[in-house]
Specification:
By secondary structure, the chain is mainly α. The chain is about 50% helix and about 5% strand. A three-stranded mixed sheet has the order 3-5-4, with no helix packed on it.
Length: about 220
């Protein structure tokens, strides 16, 4: 079969060779000779290459322009699940990035003390917003907050409306070494118990939340 695909035959000669291949190997479908169409095999081959390379266009577009490859060989039903998963993964990555607090190492804190202009790179804020974060003025219990009145969970200009639990899943949060004792206490159910069931998935991932029964018995 590979020799037929690579021989550079005309369309008529390729079809004839395909029928000969079916006859020689006695390929049937519901008792009838199998209808082997090389045009469909090309899409099957392209789809297999696409899956193996993870959609890498440089391998996929061989023999075609990128536009033709994308329109005629990538946009087919057998690849739909792969594309949908790629979109879902991308959205999940974007959501995770948006909800991830910034964690400053002691070295980065020292760097920002010496070079406040680096706040744009490390925290995405202008240098003039940095002092409250480094001094502790903008501290909450589990983190510092880049903008308590511009919460991703609320309305701009109004105080953040959610519990401090949400800080561990908030893009406004900045965690420094001085918050470590509070975070360790939070992670220890014997030191601190959550007051409610409405806890973000990010918090549940790092600390099991007691059930109502556990809280009432405690």
């Amino acid at each position: 079969m590979g020799s037929i695909l690579s021989a550079g035959l005309s369309a008529g000669a390729a079809s004839s060779a395909a029928r000969s291949f079916v006859s020689t190997h006695r390929l049937t479908d519901a008792g009838k000779p199998f209808d082997l169409r090389l045009s469909r095999l090309r899409k099957t081959h392209k789809a297999a290459v696409y899956k193996v390379t993870g959609g890498r266009m440089s391998a996929f577009v061989q023999g075609h322009s990128p536009d033709v490859a994308a329109a005629h060989y990538a946009d087919i039903p057998s690849l739909r699940a792969l594309h949908e998963q790629a979109v879902a993964d991308g959205l999940q990555d974007a959501l995770a990035d948006a909800q991830t607090p910034a964690i400053l190492t002691p070295e980065e804190e020292e760097r920002l003390t010496q070079q406040p202009a680096d706040a744009v790179e490390l925290l995405g804020i202008p240098a003039e917003q940095l002092p409250p974060l480094l001094s502790g003025e903008s501290d909450l219990w589990l983190s510092s907050c880049r903008s308590f009145f511009d919460s991703p969970f609320g309305v701009k200009g109004k105080p953040c409306p959610v519990s401090f639990f949400a800080c561990l899943g908030c893009s406004n949060a900045v965690i420094t070494r001085r918050k470590l004792p509070a975070i360790l206490a939070f992670l220890n159910p014997g030191v601190f118990q959550s007051p409610g069931d409405h806890v973000s998935p990010q918090v549940r991932a790092v600390r099991p939340v007691p059930s109502r029964t556990q809280r009432s018995s405690g």
